[in-house]
Design goal:
heterotrimer, B: alpha+beta, Arc Repressor Mutant, subunit A, 15 helices, 18 strands, C: Amidase signature (AS) enzymes, 2 domains, 11-stranded mixed β-sheet, 11 strands, globular
């Protein structure tokens, strides 16, 4: 399997929105390479025709009745917000990006 | 080369909000609007430790939509997490479906210039909506999570659409289907029906597809048509210059009438899909499917076939009637109240629809002219009590005064004079009074109109024109016919 | 008044229910011990003395008024800081959640409160439950009450240490790869990880959703059984919650005293291999002999895919963790970077500042294994391996009623001994991850002390929904030994 270098680590960090220092990138590169080496052991296991085990429960998805229960109050919803403006959560100005749903302007 | 040298290839992704009471995975209200962040709960806000529990009504809606579109419904499907970061996405992932959607295949059928079109579907899947970002002026944006977690069906078409007009008609047909099924209101302006288009061009006859651009932000049928038309021209111009179309997402700007690239730092997305561990596989049994199949309403295409077949309407009229569930239901109710179908269709299309602000309100209890009232009016015309012209006046008063045709006719003495002996006497009098015209009518048959007008004037407009015509033709001799 | 040091939860509750002592007095004694002893141990991230006294007073009022104060009346509990508690700060020992006050309560703690239990406060842990030593807490480590130079295990190290040091009469924990059982073993208390879905995960901050098992810590087997009986049960807020009714765990724990006649106990050869501390092996083998003397038939079983368990576990848990930790972005709650000019910068800096090294490592590894080109080779492969590991247990349970193994290959290790090498830390979970992957119940109880005076744990693994057989076997061992009565020194200043 592919080994990992600092360039890919930086790419992953961008994908995961994780700012890493150069020191962290270096350390992470070594750690991930070692862990990936270790998990390579799985390649020896024959899993032909084995159904992936995505859940540890044997039952089907339960469904809830379509009933509305009380909402959080606006104050409760915003109580933990680091930044708010009135009844809104506040973020730095968003320039619409590809791949995200449509925006109001 | 011109635009006509290229074949247009369009695939659409339509997002339909399902009109459930509560959200797809939690209990707060899924209603449109509300004060910012007033329709939330810990689950849809993505607070830590909270878990999704699937809303049965959302599943039922998706299954019914799938059956109506002729899809194969998976008896076992899965939810998956789709990862991306955006302010309106509370969890850093959207719960959606990936390799095992609830519906596969199927088609959306509609008429384009009277011709039946069938656009194949790739799939329909269930997912949760995001919140809304509001871009404020001063370097910040605001986020409202009321919409987060509203259930969505994403309907993905094959690249089978060949023109902007066809794309708009396809979206119209999806909306009609959604409304027929009563699973959503399909309101593009409010965003309860949203459409993204993948557009590409290729030289006619070419096998391979060209590079596609994805167009977003088309929030009306007109926008869909205009945006795609603009995009086709834009791509043709690029290809004519021998350049390449960039694979990118473009935003339609309706004010300026152009699509604009949405530049992003991330060139390619990697959504890192994996099966949603918080939701076991969703199972829909054959028995449930059979029950849903049995309870589907008559769908637009079936209605169209019935209207143009046994009912005997023109394809144009049938097309107008089936466009909305409420129009068709109104029509059926007028007919079942005894009105002849063709007349009923004319009255509905020319008078009722011209006045109704929103065709979807035709089922409202407080509609000024409910179906039985229109049927009564149509019958009065049919039996000769009212002339067409009078009836239009009566209808206008029915709509504004909320009275029935019978009441108005009775109160105003508007009943048409069809009594042949009374009309005969008037006609004889008029003929006798105009010997010069009688002499000329033999050379100029159009002069009969003069006599009809004179008789009508005598009857105060209440004479039955057909009866008057018949009498006058008899009195004036064969040359006038 | 009873001395709460070493007291069992069920004994405390019985006394409150019978009016022999007041819940308020019990709570005050624990609060006093916390004030005296916890500064040196670091079990608690937050002590809610006022809230605890208020809850205790309510229990006393109910008792006095003749109302049923609940099966856990006045039992003072420590709550792992991964359980959301309404109105009480919940951080998962992470800087990124500092200041987060949930407007909702986890189902498990709601049930404990309804049963009369009192929450003393929130317990330390490895950040987001990622670790085996509690060294990964942003608030600093918890020390092992048996030896301050040693780790208490993790990730529920605060829970295990607090119960061991009698800083609470019982505690909640979560077990994703061993996070209840391993610290229970290293601190000499009982820790129970039930069947996946037996205790609701609602309100328990997710680490690896398909592997997270909330469960109890107790001083005795019956204490753990009593807590689990309350915590467990169907929950409409968790779609993976098991609908079947809860078993009679306390009764099963007591039934053990009557012996284990007719019970077949499997001993997997794969769990007694190189890398195991000889003192651990000696104690666990002696414990198995004791179970045989209690009437159990010891049978060899094989769990041939054990060697793939750690790799499988790390692929699945990092993938799920990278997803679950995506929501911590500085918008709705928790830490937010001071300076960000764009949304992406807000995310990257907030998360870079807020997460510690281990969550960062797992987010990165998880993002890696889920990438489009790698999914099948890593995550997909791991899900198939997981099935084979689960199938091993199904096959083994065809020939036995429960499986007994060591909980941890080693007793408590020293601070820093393994933290430099993440892989070495991961290997500490070698005997505990497989039951998590299979989703089956497993319990750890004390079965010895090393010459250096560090506890050793015995693990009993049952089939799915086999909590009762685990409690019965553990109850039998406890009835015949006194390891559970051994207490660490009260290291009062």
């Amino acid at each position: 399997m592919a080994r990992i270098g600092p360039e890919e680590v930086r790419e992953l960090a961008t994908l995961a929105r994780l700012q890493l220092s150069e020191e962290e990138v270096a350390r992470m590169t070594g750690d991930l390479a070692a862990i990936l080496d270790y998990v390579d052991a799985l390649r020896a296991l024959d899993t032909t025709d084995v159904e992936p085990m995505t859940h540890a429960v044997p039952f089907d998805c339960p469904l809830r009745a379509d009933r509305v229960a009380p909402s959080l109050s606006v104050e409760e919803a915003l109580a933990n917000a680091p930044r708010r403006e009135g009844s809104f959560f506040e973020v730095p100005r968003i320039v619409p990006v590809a791949g995200a749903p449509e925006d109001e302007s | 080369m011109s635009v006509n040298d290229y074949e247009v290839v369009i695939g659409l992704e339509v997002h339909v909000q399902l009109a459930t009471r509560s959200k797809i995975f939690s209990w707060s209200s899924a209603a449109f609007g509300g004060d910012p962040n007033s329709h939330t709960d810990p689950v849809c806000l993505g607070l830590p430790g909270t878990l999704p529990v699937l809303n049965r009504a959302a599943v039922d809606s998706a299954v019914r939509l799938g059956l109506a579109a002729g899809c194969t419904i998976r008896t076992r499907c899965r939810f998956a997490r789709k990862h991306f970061f955006y302010a309106d996405l509370p969890k850093g992932f959207q719960i959606s479906q990936f390799d095992e959607p609830i519906c596969d295949g199927g088609a959306i059928k509609f008429r384009l210039h009277g011709e039946l079109r069938s656009v194949a579907l790739t799939r329909i899947h269930l997912e949760e909506d995001t919140g809304k970002n509001i871009h404020a002026a001063a370097g910040v944006s605001f986020v409202d999570y009321n919409r987060a977690g509203v259930p969505l069906c994403e309907i993905v078409s094959e690249p089978d659409i060949r023109s902007a007009e066809e794309a708009a008609e396809y979206v119209r047909a999806v909306r009609a289907l959604v409304r027929y099924l009563g699973i959503g209101d399909g309101n593009m302006e409010e965003g309860s029906l949203r459409c993204d288009a993948n557009v590409s061009l290729r030289i006619r006859g070419a096998a391979a597809y060209g590079t596609k651009a994805e167009i977003k932000n088309m929030n009306s049928f007109k926008n869909v048509r205009d945006a795609i038309e603009h995009e086709i021209k834009r791509q043709a111009t690029i290809l004519d210059r021998g350049e390449r179309v960039a694979q990118e997402t473009r935003l339609w700007d309706p004010a300026r009438g152009v699509t604009q690239s949405m530049r992003s730092k991330e060139s390619a997305h990697d959504y890192r899909y994996f099966p949603e561990p918080d939701l076991p596989p969703l199972v829909v049994t054959e028995a449930e499917l059979a029950a849903f199949r049995g309870s589907l309403p008559e769908l637009p295409e079936d209605r169209f076939a019935r209207y143009t077949g046994s009912v005997g309407l023109s394809p144009q009229d049938a097309g107008v009637l089936v466009a909305d569930h409420e129009i068709a239901s109104y029509f059926d109710a007028v007919v079942s109240a005894g009105a002849p179908p063709k007349r009923a269709a004319n009255w509905l299309i020319n008078e009722v629809l011209a006045r109704a602000a929103d065709p979807r309100r035709l089922g409202d209890a407080d509609l000024p002219v409910p179906p039985p009232a229109l049927a009564e009016l149509v019958k009065l015309v049919e039996d000769g009590t009212l002339s067409g012209k009078l009836a239009k006046d009566v209808f206008a008063r029915m709509w504004t005064e909320r009275r029935t045709a019978g009441e108005i006719v009775k109160a105003e003495g508007l009943a048409q004079v069809s009594d042949s002996s009374a009309l005969e006497a008037i006609c004889q009098r008029i003929v006798a009074a105009h010997p010069e015209e009688v002499a000329r009518v033999h050379n100029n048959p159009k002069l009969i109109g003069f006599f009809v007008g004179a008789v009508m004037k005598e009857t105060g407009g209440k004479g039955n024109p057909k009866a008057i015509n018949d009498i006058l033709r008899r009195l004036l001799g064969p040359a006038s016919s | 008044m009873i001395d709460v040091r070493g007291a069992s939860a069920v004994a405390l509750a019985d006394g409150v229910r019978a009016g022999k002592w007041r819940a308020r007095d019990v709570v005050d004694r624990y609060l006093d011990r916390i004030a005296r002893l916890d500064p040196a141990l670091g079990c608690y991230l937050l002590v809610d003395a006022a809230g605890a006294r208020r809850q205790a007073d309510a229990v006393d009022a109910a008792q006095k008024a003749g109302r049923d104060p609940g099966p856990l009346a006045g039992v003072p509990l420590g709550i792992k800081d991964i359980f959301c508690t309404r109105g009480v700060e919940t951080t998962c020992a992470s800087k990124i959640l500092r200041g987060f006050v949930p407007p909702y309560e986890s189902t498990a703690t709601t049930r404990l409160g309804a049963a009369g239990a009192v929450s003393l406060g929130k317990l330390n842990m490895d950040e987001f439950a990622m670790g085996s030593s509690t060294e990964n807490s942003s608030a600093g480590p918890t020390r092992n009450p048996w030896s301050p130079a040693h780790v208490p295990g993790g990730s529920s190290g605060g829970s295990a240490a607090a119960v061991a040091a009698s800083l609470c009469a019982g505690a909640t924990g979560t077990d994703t790869g061993g996070s209840i059982r391993q610290p229970a073993a290293l601190c000499g208390v009982v820790g129970m990880k039930p069947t996946y879905g037996r205790v609701s995960r609602y309100g328990v901050i997710a680490f690896a959703s398909s592997l997270d098992h909330p469960g109890p810590f107790g001083r005795t087997v019956e204490d753990a059984a009593a807590l689990l009986e309350v915590m467990a049960g169907p929950d409409p807020l968790d779609a993976t919650s098991i609908p079947q009714p809860v078993g009679a765990y306390r009764q099963a724990a007591r039934a053990g005293a009557a012996g284990l006649a007719g019970v077949r106990l499997g001993v997997p050869t794969e769990y007694f291999q190189a890398g195991m501390d000889p003192e651990v092996e000696t104690s666990v083998r002696a414990a198995i002999d004791e179970l045989a003397r209690a009437g159990a038939k010891i049978v060899p079983v094989s769990l041939p895919h054990t060697k793939y368990a750690i790799a499988t576990y790390y692929l699945i848990c990092t993938a799920e963790a990278s997803s679950n930790l995506a929501r911590f972005d500085g918008v709705r709650y928790g830490h937010r970077t001071a300076q960000a000019r764009s949304l992406d910068e807000l995310y990257a800096k907030t998360r870079g500042e807020g997460f510690g090294a281990e969550p960062k490592r797992r987010i990165m590894l998880g993002a890696y294994v889920l990438r489009a080109g790698y999914y099948e080779a890593y995550y997909g492969k791991a899900l198939r391996a997981r099935r084979k590991i689960a199938d091993d247990f199904s096959a083994a349970f065809a020939g036995c009623d429960a499986i007994v193994t060591p909980t941890s290959p080693v007793p408590a290790f020293k601070f820093g001994e393994r933290s430099a090498d993440p892989l070495q830390m991961y290997l500490a979970d070698v005997y505990t991850v497989a039951p998590d992957l299979a989703g089956i119940p497993a319990l750890s109880q004390p079965c010895g002390l090393t010459r250096a005076g560090l506890p050793i744990g015995l693990q009993t693994i049952g089939p799915a929904l086999g909590e009762e057989i685990c409690f019965r076997v553990a109850g039998a061992f406890e009835a015949r030994t006194d390891w559970h009565q051994q207490l660490p020194p009260d290291a009062a200043p």
